[in-house]
């Protein structure tokens, strides 16, 4: 069950995990299952866990005053999900994190974060993840302000073909900041 997490850590840390480190990781992360439509966190509640997805798919979103959803993240296997601000600061979340499919995760309670952060391999992994997340965030913002809807969708489809297959069109449109109708036109073969 922990092998995908160990593989992920070693890939990002560019270092092997010792057996002692594996024991600490196993004692820090807990298995959790979510049924489709079940929440890992809800708006207004404190995000108690960060989760590593073993199987399944989740989405992180907010709901505005008109009831419209705004997708912040679509996540599948070997991705992390967390409302970082709520998790780190232990403040109420502005987001929902919901299972889009039946999902198996390894979750890290906030109370155990400091324990695993003492491991050099985890420090290296988190540093690399933070760098990658910052780069991806910059690219997403730049794409949003500088690319047409069709180019944003084409880039997303090229980078994340599995997400395009597993999430409905209206959620992908929300994530990309594109009107649902525009994405429908873009996805029609005759419009390309």
The major sheet is characterized as: 4 strands, antiparallel
Unreliably modeled segments = none
How many individual β-strands? 8
- Mean pLDDT, to the nearest integer, reads 93
Classify the helix fraction into a percent range: 40-55%
Strand fraction equals 15-25%
Q: Number of helix segments?
A: 9
- What structural category characterises the helix and strand content? alpha+beta
Shape: globular
Straight-line distance between termini = 43 Å
Strand and helix order:
HHEEEEEEHEEHHHHHH
Structure in words:
With about 190 residues, the protein is α+β, with helices and mostly antiparallel strands. The chain is about 45% helix and about 20% strand. The protein has a four-stranded antiparallel sheet. It has a four-stranded antiparallel sheet with strand order 2-7-4-5. Strand 4 and strand 5 (about 70-75) form a beta hairpin.
């Amino acid at each position: 069950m922990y092998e995908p997490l160990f593989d992920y850590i070693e890939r990002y840390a560019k270092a092997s995990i010792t057996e002692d480190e594996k024991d600490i990781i196993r004692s820090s992360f807990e298995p959790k299952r979510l049924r489709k439509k079940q929440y890992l966190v809800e708006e207004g509640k404190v995000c108690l866990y960060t989760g590593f997805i073993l199987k399944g798919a989740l989405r992180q979103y907010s709901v505005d005053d008109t009831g419209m959803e705004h997708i912040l993240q679509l996540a599948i296997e070997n991705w992390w999900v967390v409302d970082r601000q709520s998790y780190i600061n232990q403040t109420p979340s502005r987001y929902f994190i919901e299972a889009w499919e039946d999902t198996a995760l390894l979750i890290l309670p906030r109370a155990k974060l400091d324990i695993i952060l003492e491991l050099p391999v985890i420090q290296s992994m988190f540093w690399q993840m933070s760098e990658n997340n910052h780069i991806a965030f910059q690219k997403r913002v730049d794409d949003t302000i500088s690319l047409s809807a069709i180019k944003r969708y084409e880039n997303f489809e090229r980078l994340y073909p599995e997400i395009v297959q597993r999430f409905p069109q209206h959620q992908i449109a929300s994530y990309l900041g594109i009107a649902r109708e525009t994405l429908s036109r873009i996805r029609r073969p005759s419009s390309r």
